[in-house]
Recover the amino acids of this structure.
């Protein structure tokens, strides 16, 4: 769940159009990001998994969703340490929480365009 106070603080100096653009970029990259992550997890390609999980972590950090940030950080760490135990579950938790993040961002986007 997005911490709205921190979200607003993070974007306080941005025009609404810029915030909308940042959200839209995340939406447009979402499917490709998760296709890559899914492939990396299935193939246990820890080099690419680390790269892609770390990249996602940086992106979701902008939106101030502590659960999704933590899950992406944990996936990044698991890849770094080449941990296979629980990797599928961790990835699935990340997918589910990021889907919730998307829904929250849709609401915020709608509020910004109203």
């Amino acid at each position: 769940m997005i911490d709205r106070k921190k979200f607003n603080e993070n974007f306080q100096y941005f025009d609404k159009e810029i915030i909308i653009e940042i959200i839209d970029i995340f939406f447009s990259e979402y499917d490709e990001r998760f296709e890559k992550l899914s492939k990396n997890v299935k193939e246990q390609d820890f080099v690419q998994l680390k790269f892609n999980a770390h990249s996602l972590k940086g992106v979701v950090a902008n939106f101030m969703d502590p659960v999704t940030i933590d899950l992406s950080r944990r996936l990044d760490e698991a890849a770094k340490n080449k941990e296979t135990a629980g990797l599928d579950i961790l990835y699935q938790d990340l997918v589910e929480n990021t889907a919730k993040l998307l829904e929250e961002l849709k609401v915020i986007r709608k509020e910004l365009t109203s």
